[in-house]
Amino acid sequence: MNNQAIAHNLKRLRSNARYNQSDLAEKAGMSLSGYQKLERGKATPRAESIKALAQALQVPIQEILAEVKPLKHIRFRSLKRLKTREQIISDVVTWLYDFNSLEELTQDKQVADLHEFYAYKESNTCGIPELANYCRSKFGLGPKEPVLDICGLLEARGIKVRSIEVETDSFLGLSVSEQEKGGPAVIVNTWKRLPVETWIFSAAHELGHLLMHLNAYDIDQTTEIEEQEAEADQFASHFLMPQDAFEREWNEAAGLSFVDRVLKVKKVFKVSWRTVLYRYAEDMPSEKKNKLWMNFNIEFKHRYRKSLQKHTEPVGIESDHYRINHRYTTASEPFNLDVFDFTEDRLPFLVRKAVESGNISLSRGAEILRLQNKEMRQLASSWVG
Predict the structure, then answer these.
(1) How far apart are alpha carbons 366 and 374 in whole angstroms?
(2) Based on CB atoms within 10 Å of each CB, which residue in 110, 162, 168, 169 is the most buried?
(3) Regions of the chain where pLDDT drops below 70
(4) Are 364 and 345 spatial neighbours (Cβ–Cβ below 8 Å)?
């Protein structure tokens, strides 16, 4: 038996069942310390313990024993060392496996071919804004059209999208290249203290990495490379706000105060005020950029009687633009978006298709969607059309 695989599976299954360690240990007739050793991979479980845990979790024994296949072609960098890095990767492995299995069961597989973007990048001496515009056109977006549903946009191109909640702002997202089975995929940290605008920008940022930095997809690399991060930021900015459309909206708002002008443009494109300022100041010298940001903060405080904090997002968007299940955000982007502004649709669609065709049970659907069985039954009863 692989202790690390069992540890990962126990964490995942316990989380799905919404048990804490003490709850599960009690239900399985184990001591808390004994269970904790299993979940840390520090002990080899006895056969009767595995059977008791499977009964407590209401899953087949094989669900606990299943091997976790490693990912190699993944780009996972963070500003700080994450204690949860291995758990996040294990969760992504399980999610990709479930997603691929559903696509095969339902015979509804979407293949993402990013080679045309690689070819365009290699055959043209284009800059990052041009690559972003080319990508927009291939994704079916008009030259002045805002990105209203980035999850749907990526999923329509066969790029899987996953939301995870990690309680830190030093990690915003990761991506899996198409070299990996089930890839490409974009995984975004949708922690409730991060504004939805940050979720959306992170998804576009990871798309930039997928198109520009394929040789950086190495699981063993953990440190961010400033140049690549800056390039991905620039790509995301131009993907979400094409230059012509940005200039039109910016110029039309010329009669407004500086703060109102930024907030109006932010609202049009469903981005953060930081993204608008970043674009406006893109070609300015550093000294002038710093003064611009300082003036914006001063004027905002004078206007609204409060300071802009690290994750404050005035005039924020609703989470409908990035939603899965029933999440919410407490981040205070001014006039902010909310979770319905970020919605993954494809995996729930495949679960419904598989459940209704009899390929999987409701309990298996609940496991894939990380829902309790009661929540899954409620979801299934609400399906219409």
Answers:
(1) 9
(2) 162
(3) 1, 79, 310-336, 338-340
(4) no
Which pLDDT score is estimated for 57?
Answer: 93
SS3 content of the chain, % helix, strand, coil (to 5): 55, 10, 40
The domain over range 3-65 is classified in CATH as 3.40.50.10420 = no
pLDDT at 324 (0 to 100): 45
Give the phi and the psi of residue 176 in degrees, each rounded to 5: -115, 130
pLDDT tens digits along 290-312? 898 889 989 988 888 887 776 66
- Whether the CA torsion 260, 238, 196, 267 is positive or negative: it is positive
Structure tokens that stand for 85 in this block? 């890095």
Spell out the residues 6+ positions from residue 264 whose beta carbon is closer than 8 angstroms to its own.
Answer: 249, 253, 256
- Domain coordinates of the chain in residue numbers? 3-65, 74-240, 346-382
- Degrees, nearest 5: CA angle 181-134-199: 60
pLDDT value at residue 357: 92
Nearest to 160 by CA among 376, 324, 329, 328: 324
Q: What is the pLDDT of residues 158-186, one digit of tens each?
A: 999 999 998 888 889 999 999 998 899 99
- pLDDT at residue number 317: 54
Q: Which residues of 142-159 are buried (b: 16+ CB within 10 A; e: fewer)?
A: eeeebbebbbbbbbebbb
* 188: enclosing H helix or E strand: strand 185-189
Are the beta carbons of 189 and 175 closer than 8 angstroms? no
Amino acid sitting at position 33:
S
Contact yes or no for 366/373 (Cβ under 8 A): yes
